[in-house]
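Gamma-glutamylputrescine oxidoreductase
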Amino acid sequence: MSSMQYPPSFYAASANAAPPRPALQGEIETDVCIIGAGYTGLSSALFLLERGFSVCVLEAAKVGFGASGRNGGQIVNSYSRDLDVIERSVGAEQARLLGDMAFEGARIIRERVTRYGINCDLKNGGVFAAITAKQLKHLESQQRLWERYGHTQLELMDQARIRQVVDCDQYVGGLLDVSGGHIHPLNLALGEAAAVESLGGRIHEQSPAIRIERGPSPVVHTAHGKVRAKFVIVAGNAYLGELVPELAAKSMPCGTQVIATEPLGEELARRLLPQDYCVEDCNYLLDYYRLTADKRLIFGGGVVYGARDPANIEAIIRPKMLKAFPQLAQVKIDYAWTGNFLLTLSRLPQMGRLGDNIYYSQGCSGHGVTYTHLAGKVLAEALSGQAERFDAFADLPHYPFPGGRALGAPLTQLGAWYYSLRDRLGF
Ligand SMILES: Cc1cc2nc3c(=O)[nH]c(=O)nc-3n(C[C@H](O)[C@H](O)[C@H](O)COP(=O)(O)OP(=O)(O)OC[C@H]3O[C@@H](n4cnc5c(N)ncnc54)[C@H](O)[C@@H]3O)c2cc1C
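Structure:
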């Protein structure tokens, strides 16, 4: 089988050196076999190793090959669904647990970066930017809601204040989260993989799991080997395919696209984003951007449902960038790439257990950098017998996409069209 390499992104071009990680050959035994070396798999592996479990991670391609090595790099707290929606759909105690955890993922990332000396250009501060007065009102209510759960670090910004942090005249205000921020996402994944190995964990690349033999001690099969484990964690997210049919039924892979400009130079970069915060707007189909360490603008947006690759990513994303920053009209685009995230109907993540010993977490519907790190911790707690926080996620209601994945793509596309109309008309 031919080996699967990183797509040609800015991140692959600026990745820190990593050792070769040979494919699995033969049979091994371990406490936990993890399928997928994105943030979910790597964070789970780290927390489990720190608790004394032995761990083997199987990765179909390379560490961070999926969304974790391609994303916008924005450390965005909370979930892809507002806490008041969660409060209305679950009981008070479950909502309290989920609300308390809403900002924990960013703390975990910072703790990992410090403890394991990960070089991933970590920067502090993220902005939610409102394009309409209605969006600003919504941010105000979000701030009050988050404050009820003790997250008091957020600053509401009016039009004059937001112009001090981003040189874009589209915004009427915003919310600054100093506990948010940004990272080089692939280098974070590579650093976490090195940390896993430093604690004795094994990672096999080019080793897709092709079958899970379920039972009291499950066996995960690859083309040339197998792993017998006490527990399995399925962390393949949008790249999992049909390996676990129960998981495929309730989720939809979606493609989203990112571009990176040529380096802008210190002066222009400082004019655009003086404090080097990352920004996402409040549209349903949102645009998001930030600077890299070498002062490029990374700009993402747009969703192609059903995970197709668009013929020309630059043609889709560059006009969005120029709408926000017309001053970049002469700037060249050096890289353009696409990646898949996993959408759920409720836009809330799916965490749970199949039988006694197969755990999973997936589907954070766009905002996954922080949630996946939290998920690793919560899964490790559950495997250690402390399931209170795991249950808070596992008890969230989830529904299949009408018609399954084949029909679901056109339906969600229709949904996307509706929401983009809402964004444009401001209702
Ligand atoms: C372009 C893009 C931009 C984004 N921007 C942001 C952002 O700025 N901020 C934010 O919070 N979120 C963002 N997201 C979402 C975020 O990146 C994801 O939610 C998160 O990285 C998911 O991590 P994961 O580990 O669950 O999945 P992934 O990172 O996709 O990892 C899954 C891994 O499993 C492997 N795998 C799959 N099947 C198998 C198998 N059978 N055997 C072995 N291995 C397997 C895959 O190869 C892959 O490496 C973005 C996503 C994309 C695609």
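The chain is about 35% helix and 25% strand.
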